[in-house]
Amino acid sequence: MTTSDHPENVSNSGGTRNPSGIVKSAILDELVDRWLSKVAVLVAIYVTFRGHNAPGGGFAGGLIVGGVFVLQYLTGREPHVRFRAILRPTRLLGLGLLLALGTTAAPLFVDATPLESHIWKLDVPLIGEVKVVSSMFFDLGVFFVVVAVVLMILLSLGTRQSTVFGDEDAA
Asked: What is the DSSP string of 45-107?
């Protein structure tokens, strides 16, 4: 009898346990990685870009993508994008904060009020007229901040505080 066939390594659902005791299920991995993640990210993109004209926006879209990372974590793996683990969510947090802050402050340079929205109409070949709204960039900043916070929470579960924020070189 091999170690993987040992009764302690097999769960009631048919998955196997890895050395840390987490039950691994091939069906759940396949469902989350191949289908659920991709559909949820498409919904998040739609909700994020639709948010400046209807309910939704960066916060709702960020929570949906954060939910994808939570599902990846619950299947026993680190959150990843295209098979690359996300190890430094602080960079994503900084990008989101800079984008939101820049969108807030940009109207001040043209004698407008902070967060004042501007609409550009672009004629895109094969698509037609596309409206680009300045509030979309604020929504993207909020999206990145929410995703980064969820990732920081997930990466901090079971690790020391210093490794989450990238201070392991300072020790």
From this structure: HHHHHHTTTSS--HHHHHHHHHHHHHHHHHTTS--EETTEE---HHHHHHHHHHHHHHHHHGG
**In the block, which residue shows the tokens 């346990």?**
17
Buried b (16+ CB within 10 A) or exposed e, 78-102: ebeeeeeebeebeebbeebeebbee
In the chain, DSSP finds a helix count (H) and a strand count (E) of 6, 6
What pLDDT tens digit does each residue of the chain (171 aa) get?
444 444 444 444 455 555 555 556 677 777 777 788 889 999 999 998 887 667 678 999 999 999 988 888 887 777 777 667 777 889 999 999 999 999 999 998 988 888 888 888 999 898 889 888 888 899 999 999 999 999 998 888 866 555 555 555 544
* CA 59/CA 52 separation, integer angstroms: 11
pTM: 0.73
Question: How far apart (Å, rounded) are the C-alpha atoms in residues 148 and 142?
Answer: 10
Question: What does the block give as tokens for 46?
Answer: 């739609």
